[in-house]
Design brief:
Chain lengths: 379, 926
């Protein structure tokens, strides 16, 4: 009886999530958004400027043509230059840790922005990036420590790269008729570079960790979870983890942003709060600015995980079987639409190909899903 | 068989009760007479004229009693029997010459008969002027007509007395269970004098000497009346019969008149039968859910049983469960209330004129009264629902003196989590609650009550973090009646609430954290019935709070978590109050009360100090001061006024007004829209001031169709001060300087409430409509950041329009159907007004707090109650409740959120119950 009821119950419960059309899509905001960290002693510094847009816009609006300066409290400054639309950069900063610094921005429409003065935060090097395999797949951890117990507030970002292979390797290629027809009229032997490719993913969530409540400044926190049988670990996987450190206020700013935009949709969500950072619009003091100015050394480390280290990982490409096609324009036009040739089936005298195998494009051409340009750091 | 037995017993008793004394003197005298409403003298004269008898009686005893007879050639004894049948006069015929007519005690002309069960009312003249008239046992069953027509003589007629006003008091009890009948209306016919029995069924009336008819009405009881002749002070205990249609709980009549006649405004009372009729989700009869259908009461959403009464926040309600304060009245993330419906008798909600005896919260007092155990026989019940099972047992420990009632509920609701929104998947939840009530009636003047309550919840939302919370309450109460005019209730007890969270997914960070609050209280309440014009209440309350605002400890050996514990907080809240109800004229009543409350924040405690005149922020912290144990760190005090007035324009139409002020010294800290299990409480301290509220309200009350339809219209305006809201990104958990994260806001609330209610007849129910607003403002730059630039903004629970209909139709005694429907404006939310790209994702830009609303809310529910057969004497009584929650399957949004999907921000509405939910409940009673 109970079981039956339960079953009935599950049947009637439908999805509880529905699209919501905002009554406020057209509000114009255009507040300045400042993103990025000044990288002291760690290479290139990138500061990105953009604008907030209305809710149903799709494109991001970069803030181009601004003058961005890093000022110290001794009235000297470093100017950043715009190397691409909205991205302001400077290389190899070696700042004086005894000074405090602020960011000064003058936009092309003559708005002035200034951050508060901040101290340079020391960032301990990443001890290791480790991983563990469990029933829920592979979890990657950041491990770090500060023997002085002073760092306390951490943020990480990561860039993932993984190699993957097509289901079928191709040893034949199409021969195409000259334009304007450009029809596939036959296949010949060939070795296209479409078997081995790479995909990329960057962190889209704000990853935070604090040791403020711990006796020692030791971090062992999960950053990434790769579910079982994921393509990421099908061949070889690499992840570059970047570690930033923050002041308490900066950390709280990121925490607020995370709460506002990531942990939503539950019954006990906290109310959204305003995002007041340490950057202010001096020419129009009431105008909100989004961003928190911070200086630290960016620490980074990359690790690789091989499929061979994960017995029975279980990644499978779901792909249709190969079909046999006669090597003539008619049957190619008729049967091979959306397919790519993989290998010869029957060969005639003098090595001529009479029939060949073909499979769906995405099972043969890995560039449909990634790039076949090998990253420089790939082994 | 049993029924037959008691019928036999009844017959036997009747025989004993009416011994036929005339049998020994079988005088056969035949009478013919036709008299209409004549006095005793005329009657006697008529009879004497037709016989040789002489009648002896005391004419004064008969007062204005009249007799009517119409007989033809009937024997004298028959005639006399007829004449006195409905009175308590007895007659004896001695020899052939004399007839003695006496009151109560028959003059025994033969051998004394020991079987007379009636206590003499007029006999014992030298002892005391007070008499107790005990109702003859037989009348408990079906001689209602007899007892209602009988004139009870109270006091000594012949005793010389100068007093004009006499006092009549007594208890009203349920003849079946022996339980006191609370809030029964005791009204004197042809006057506006009426009183309501207190929570012990006690009433006291002050009347000029004379003859009266007293009408007694109560919920679920048959109306009854008593005729009294008052000569002096006395006592009249009255048994009422419950409406035994189903077993206990059918409402046929209610306090029909009290709505118009009482001075209380904004008082809503619901009995458990009504509560059980209202369809609710999963069929769990839920007190708090039903309360939310009343005008002026709102809740944030379906997953919240937190009440918002007249623009008050959820922590501004004093929830008393038999005098014990319940801090978290909910189970299961707030989806169900933590009160076992099988033990609850009724619920009272005070939302405007809060009696002076209650204090400490701004908005309302919710008084939940449980039943007393059956004093006569062991009985019980059990129920099986989709979500919980419950069992209760009650019975006498010492017959008619001591009784117990015990109830327990537990859940097997894990499966429910799987059908909730995604984030609850793979979660587990369990809860239970236990109640034990003992009542001991030492004698009619002293009664003791013990209540024990325990509720516990434990759940994990994502399989690694376990949440738990629990309420524990113990209370002991002593009701003492000093005399006719003065009675008292003294109560004491402890209340405790705690929650804890633990997580051990990451060994280095494994932790346990928690919060708890204990309070010990003492209350003494006196009721002094001075005279017909004045009833005075006075007393004192004191509460000692001890709060552990939070601890955070390592869990497991490898955890690096540093134990962190906030200092415990102590405080003493005391109040003295006096209240006078003054009946100026029969139509005009005034009630005035004052409550003076004093709050002491006590050491030991280290308190942060802040630079005066600057905002309370971390940067303005100047240091700390350590106070020793018992030291007064900060004292707040002030008077609270409670005034109300009633003017009756007609018998069924009255106008009432009230003004009251409240102080609240304890605050709930919650950063979520719903009442969450992790909300903590905070005592007022040097930096956080007590909340203050004042309310003025005006109401019109009109009853129709001989008081079976009640209507009321109330308007109110309310001001609140130092109501806590939070700074953006406030951290409420384990914060060593919580005062820097909160802001004191001002609030105003106003509204109109309309209620039409019919609680009798086949079709019953109510319709309530409320229009109300509640707006908050933070415009003091010194207090911290301005919210919405210092303008008024709507509170989370500001839902201007709210209409609810609760309907029940009794098709037969065994089958009834219920339908309820509710509509309200969507609650305010903070919506994003823009988007930006940051840290690898598109993010939302939020602006003004609560500037938008979620879509309006509508829901209809349906249920059928099917009772088994109504034979009184069977082993068990069964009933089924079958229903559908959210009949229309409307997906009422609970919240709205935005997520970034492929670079595009998509908004989603989340609803708790996204479809119609059928349920079935089976109950058994034995």
């Amino acid at each position: 009886m109970n079981k039956l009821l339960l079953f009935l119950f599950v049947l009637v419960i439908a999805g509880c999530k529905e699209k919501f059309i905002s009554p406020a899509p057209a509000v114009v905001t255009g507040y300045l958004v400042v993103e990025g960290i000044v990288n002291n002693e760690g290479g290139t510094t990138n500061i990105k400027l953009s604008r907030t847009t209305s809710l149903n816009d799709i494109a991001n609006i970069q803030e181009s043509g601004a003058q961005v300066k890093l000022e110290d409290n001794n009235n000297s400054f470093y100017a950043l230059f715009e190397n691409s639309n909205g991205n302001y950069t400077i290389d190899n900063l070696h700042l004086d840790t005894s000074l405090t610094y602020r960011l000064s921005i003058k936009t092309s429409n003559n708005e002035d922005y200034l951050s508060d003065f901040v101290k340079i935060k020391k960032n301990p090097p990443i001890d290791s990036i480790s991983w563990e395999r469990a029933y829920d797949g592979v979890t990657i951890y950041a491990n770090t420590h500060d023997p002085l117990n002073k760092t306390l507030y951490y943020q990480w970002e990561y860039d993932e790269t993984w190699e993957f292979h097509s289901r079928y390797s191709a040893s034949v290629v199409y021969v195409t008729s000259p334009p304007p027809n450009s029809q596939n009229i036959g296949v010949v032997e060939g070795h296209p570079d479409i078997y081995k490719c790479w995909q990329f993913n960057a962190s889209g969530n704000i990853l935070l960790g604090s040791t403020a409540k711990l006796a020692q400044d030791i971090v062992h926190l999960p950053l990434i979870n790769i579910p079982p049988a994921s393509i990421k670990l099908g061949v070889l996987y690499a992840v570059l983890v970047k570690q930033y450190v923050w002041s308490k206020e900066g950390y709280e700013f990121l925490e607020r942003m995370k709460k506002n935009t990531e942990s939503v949709g539950s019954v006990f969500d906290a109310q959204p709060s305003e995002l007041n950072g340490n950057i202010h619009c001096t020419s129009n003091p009431g105008q909100p600015v989004i961003g928190f100015f911070n200086i630290c050394t960016i620490q980074q480390q990359r690790i690789f995980i091989r499929n061979a280290e994960l017995p029975d990982w279980g990644y499978l490409i779901g792909c249709g079987i190969e079909i046999e096609i006669e090597n003539n324009p008619d049957s190619i036009a008729k049967k091979a639409s959306g397919l790519l040739p993989t290998s010869p089936r029957n060969t005639g005298p003098f090595g001529s190909i009479l029939t060949f195998y073909a499979a769906p494009e995405e099972c043969v051409d890995c560039t449909k899903r990634g790039t076949n340009v090998k990253p420089t750091y790939w082994p | 068989m049993k029924k037959y037995c008691s019928f036999m017993l009844l017959l036997v008793l009747m025989v004993i009760y009416h011994p036929k004394t005339y049998a020994q003197n079988d005088s056969v005298k035949f009478i013919t007479a036709d008299l209409n409403a004549v006095g005793i003298d005329k009657l006697a004269a008529t009879l004497e004229s037709q016989t040789s008898l002489h009648f002896y009686y005391d004419a004064a005893q008969f007062d204005s009693l009249t007799f009517s007879i119409n007989v033809k050639n009937e024997p004298l004894v028959k005639v006399l029997e007829k004449v006195f049948a409905k009175t308590d006069f007895q007659f004896s015929i001695a020899g052939l010459d004399y007839v003695f007519i006496t009151r109560g005690k028959r003059i025994n002309t033969a051998i004394p008969d020991a079987a007379i069960a009636v206590e003499p009312a007029g006999g014992n003249r030298d002892a005391n002027k007070k008499r107790t008239i005990k109702e003859p046992f037989v009348e408990k069953n079906n001689l209602k007509v007899g007892i209602e027509n009988r004139v009870f003589e109270i006091g000594d007629k012949l005793a010389p007395s100068l007093q004009n006003e006499v006092i009549l008091n007594g208890f009203i009890t349920d003849s079946k269970t022996g339980e006191n009948v609370v809030a029964a209306n005791v009204a004197v016919e042809k006057s506006t004098i009426n009183v309501i029995t207190d929570q012990y069924g006690y009433f006291s009336l002050s009347l000029p000497k004379g003859r009266y008819v007293i009408n007694i009405q109560s919920l679920g009881m048959k109306d009854t009346k008593r005729q009294v002749q008052l000569y002096g002070d006395g006592k009249l205990n009255i048994d009422m019969q419950s409406q035994i249609l189903t077993i206990r709980n059918v409402v046929i009549s209610s306090q029909k008149i009290s709505n118009v006649k009482g001075t209380q405004m904004g008082l809503q009372k619901i009995d458990i039968k009504t509560i059980k009729q209202v369809p609710v989700v999963f069929g769990e009869a839920d007190i708090l859910r039903v309360i939310t259908t009343l005008p002026g009461v709102k809740t944030v959403g379906e997953a919240s049983t937190g009440l918002n009464v007249r623009g008050g926040s959820t922590d501004q309600n004093l929830i008393l469960f038999n005098d014990a304060t319940i801090y978290n009245p909910s189970h299961f993330f707030g989806m169900f209330s933590a009160f076992n419906p099988e033990l609850v008798k009724d619920v009272e909600l005070y939302k405007s004129s809060i009696p002076a005896r209650y204090g400490g919260r701004l908005s309302s007092v919710l008084n939940i009264n449980t039943r007393e155990g059956n004093k006569k026989k062991l009985s019980g019940g059990a129920g099986i629902g989709l979500l919980t099972s419950r069992i209760n047992l009650e019975g006498p420990i010492i017959n008619d003196k001591t009784s117990f009632i015990i109830g327990a509920r537990t859940t097997y609701a894990n499966w429910l989590l799987n059908i909730l929104p995604d984030q609850y998947k793979n979660s587990k939840a369990g809860f239970y609650d236990l109640n034990l009530n003992l009542t001991h009636e030492l004698n009619k003047k002293n009664t003791f009550y013990f209540t024990g309550y325990l509720s516990k919840d434990r759940f994990n939302l994502n399989s690694d973090t376990v949440y738990g919370y629990s309420n524990t309450n113990l209370s002991l109460k002593w009701k003492h009646i000093f005399n006719n005019k003065v009675s008292s209730v003294v109560a004491g007890g402890t209340d405790q609430y705690s929650y804890n969270i633990s997580s051990n997914r990451l060994p280095l960070n494994a932790y346990k954290m928690g919060f708890d609050i204990h309070q010990t209280y003492f209350k003494a309440h006196f009721n002094y019935y001075l005279n017909n014009k004045h009833t005075i209440d006075f007393g004192l309350n004191t509460i000692y709070y001890k709060l552990n605002p939070g601890y955070f400890n390592p869990d497991g050996k490898s955890s690096l978590v540093v134990p962190d514990q906030l200092d415990a907080e102590q405080a003493l809240e005391s109040a003295l109050y006096v209240n006078d109800k003054y009946n100026v004229t029969t139509a005009f009543t005034l009630e005035g009360g004052i409550r003076y409350s004093i709050y002491n924040y006590l050491g030991p405690k280290t308190v942060n100090t802040y630079a005066p005149g600057l905002p309370i922020t971390e940067s303005n912290m100047t240091g700390t001061i350590a106070y020793e144990k018992g030291k007064f760190i900060k004292t707040y005090s002030g008077p609270e006024y409670r005034f109300s007035a009633r003017y009756a324009l007609t018998d069924s139409f009255s106008i009432k007004a009230s003004f009251n002020t409240q102080r609240q010294y304890i605050h709930m800290l919650s950063n979520t829209a719903a009442m969450a299990p992790t909300d903590i409480w905070k005592l007022s301290d040097p930096s956080i001031k007590p909340q203050y509220g004042e309310q003025v309200s005006l109401g019109l009350y009109k009853n129709f169709k001989s008081n079976t339809i009640e209507t009321s219209l109330e308007v109110y305006y309310k001001n609140m001060k130092d109501y806590l809201d939070y700074k953006s990104g406030a951290n409420l958990v384990l914060n060593h300087h919580i005062e820097t994260d909160v802001i004191a806001t001002k609030g105003k609330a106003y509204g109109v409430e309309f209620l039409i209610k019919k609680l009798t007849g086949k079709l019953n129910g109510w319709i309530s409509y409320t229009w109300s607003r509640v707006l908050l403002k933070q415009d003091d730059p010194l207090a911290g950041e301005l919210i919405n630039r210092g303008n008024y903004y709507p509170a989370n629970y500001d839902k201007p329009h709210d209409i609810t209909m609760i309907g029940n139709y009794r098709v037969s005694h065994r089958f009834s159907i219920s339908l309820n429907a509710t509509y309200s404006t969507g609650r305010p939310i903070t919506l994003p007004i823009g988007r930006f790209y940051f840290a690898g994702a598109v993010r939302t830009l939020f602006a003004d707090r609560n500037a938008y609303r979620i879509p309006d809310y509508f829901r209809a529910d349906f249920s059928m109650n099917i009772d088994g057969n109504h034979k009184i004497h069977q082993l068990t009584h069964n009933s089924w409740t079958i229903g559908v929650y959210n009949l229309t399957g409307r997906k009422n949004p609970y919240s709205v959120y935005y997520v970034s999907e492929n670079g595009v921000l998509n908004g989603y509405k989340l609803s708790i119950f996204g479809s119609a939910i059928p349920y079935v409940n089976f109950n058994i009673r034995f």
